[in-house]
Amino acid sequence: MTSALDIPFVKAHLNSSAIALQDDTQAVSYVDLNSRVHAQAKSWRSALVDTLSGSRPLVIVKMHNTIDSVVDYLTLLSLDGVVLLLHPDCSDEILQTYVTKLKPNAIAEQGALEVLHQMPVLLDCQVSVLLSTSGSTGAGKCVALSQDNLLSNCNSILAYLPIIPTDNTLLTLPLSYSYGLSVLHTHLKVGATICFTQYGAVERQFWSKVKETPIHSLSGVPSFYEILNRLRFTRMALPELRYFTQAGGRLRDELVTQFARYAEENDKSFFVMYGQTEATARMAYTKQNTLLNKPDTIGKAIPGGEFALKTAQGELSSTAVEGELCYKGGNVMLGYVSTQDDLSSFIKQSWLNTGDLARRDRDGDYKIVGRQKRFIKIAGERMNLDAIETVFEKMGIEAHCVGTDDLLVICVLSSMVSKLHQALESHQIIAKRHRKVVELEQWKLLENGKIDYSFLIGLMERDE
Amino acid sequence: MSNQEKLVQAFSDALGIAQDLVQDTLEYNTIKEWDSTAHMVLISELETVFDVMLDTDDIIDMSSVAKAKSILGKYDVTF
């Protein structure tokens, strides 16, 4: 028998014959997963590690929601590698940008390893997993996480989500996304089964799989729950489904209430969760009993975590009731990475400034009331407004972007409008339904000469 | 406008694709414009244009333009 992999979130059940991973055609037990990873590690060790004179390999993984990709990921962790997980749909241009910035030793995809160079890379001893902050929409900076971060968040989540070893979960979220990855980690940690499917929630095969497997839990971003609502999910007979979780942005109150009521009346649980990749995944959660009274709350900090609000004066306060939401816990990232040099060492901050403005009520529950940082979420994927502006700038268009979740508002001067429309049509930067163009005669600037974004936000809100 | 023209217009608007791409053989998930989110926009558009209320089975069976026609047929929309 091969020895068990020494990866904290996976090592406990590797001698179990229970199913670890399952897709539309095959299933792999924990024992088999362990041997597959060992076999691949043996071959990759000679191609990748032995030539590095003791230094750890840095590898980009194009992470599909497949058994092969999970094997790739675990193989690299077992070789003590540092991995950047990229969305499988990310373009060659994005991949190349990361290759140029990070100069990885290799790229892995679905069991295939392409070695790029064998120069040792100077890597901090804790850094383990890198996640992109821009989804599949750009080559934004990465969040650097340690194995301690992953394990800490995994244990916090397991302290409140009712995951049991006999569970089958259907993972529809990308594994390159912190929420999706957290579902993988937590289920591997307890020895449960993670199922993948090539079908989406609007396809018949998806629901056959949910009923026949049967699936005990679902997780999704707001757009997933919009689809469930449209499909009259609450009227489907799903006796085996025990709980479902929502994160990745705010779901509208009406739907939160509807799903909370459904859970309450059908002896199921509904969890609304709040987090950021910067905190590995999760920072807060709440359940249907609270949501029925307060559909817009994010609840309280997860076990092992702590919130504080930063006042307008920039002080962390335990008594303030409104301010920037700050979080402390074992899951706070090591730091950001833009280039290879950033990987050599990190200065870890104990408090994470989320960039979200929050209010705390008398029960101690938090509610997000606004956002300070320059990003929005489109269909659950984070989009950095500054990065989008840079994309336009490269096309010779000065555009300034504001927006809310699922709507990017692009402001340009009248003279640039037709050029902008041409660029939007030919480059398909963002789907038509998620964008709006606002035309201005001239820019309004702040005293320091910078664009007055609050003016643009005002324009956007007036238009609504 | 004939029902065929209305259907082509609805698909073209909902998916944001050219009208000549809307052929009977066009299937869900074979072009990136027709993903799960766009599918929901499409369903709303078809419901509005043809004044029907589609049920869960209709929504998850509407996997091609041809299928859309046969499903709408159940609601007395003829092509």
What is this structure, in a nutshell?
Chain A is an alpha/beta fold and 464 residues long. Chain A is built from twelve helices and 26 strands.
List keywords for this structure.
heterodimer, A: 464 residues, Rossmann fold, GMP Synthetase, Chain A, domain 3, 14-stranded mixed sheet, 7-stranded mixed sheet, B: Non-ribosomal Peptide Synthetase Peptidyl Carrier Protein, Chain A, 56% helix
Count every beta strand of chain A, where a strand is a DSSP E run of 2 or more residues.
26
Number of E strands of chain B: 0
Low-confidence runs of at least 5 consecutive residues of chain A: none
Estimate what percentage of residues of chain B fall within beta strands. Answer: under 5%
What profile does the largest beta sheet of chain B have? none
Architecture of chain B, CATH level 2? Orthogonal Bundle
Rounded mean pLDDT of chain B is: 93
From the N-terminal CA to the C-terminal CA of chain B, the straight-line distance is 12 Å
Structure description:
The complex is a heterodimer of chains A (464) and B (79). Chain A has helices spanning 30-49, 67-78, 92-102, 147-158, 178-190, 204-212, 222-230, 253-265, 288-291, 385-394, 417-427, 453-463, and strands spanning 19-22, 27-29, 58-62, 82-86, 106-109, 112-115, 127-132, 142-146, 168-170, 193-195, 217-220, 243-246, 269-275, 282-287, 297-301, 306-310, 316-317, 322-328, 335-337, 351-360, 366-371, 375-378, 381-384, 400-404, 407-413, 435-440. Chain A is of the alpha/beta class and 464 residues long. The radius of gyration of chain A is 23 Å and the shape is globular. Chain A contains 12 helices and 26 strands. In chain A, helix 1 (30-49) packs across helix 2. Helices cover 29% and strands 27% of the residues of chain A. Chain B has 79 residues and is an all-alpha fold. Chain B has one domain: Orthogonal Bundle (Non-ribosomal Peptide Synthetase Peptidyl Carrier Protein, Chain A). Helix content of chain B is 56%, strand content 0%. In chain B, helix 1 runs antiparallel to helix 2 (36-50). The radius of gyration of chain B is 11 Å and the shape is globular. The mean pLDDT of chain B is 93. Classes of the chains: A alpha/beta (464), B mainly alpha (79). Chain A binds chain B through residues 200-204, 206-207, 223, 226-227, 230-232, 235-236, 379, 431-433, and chain B through 16, 28-29, 33, 35-41, 43, 55-56, 59-61, 63.
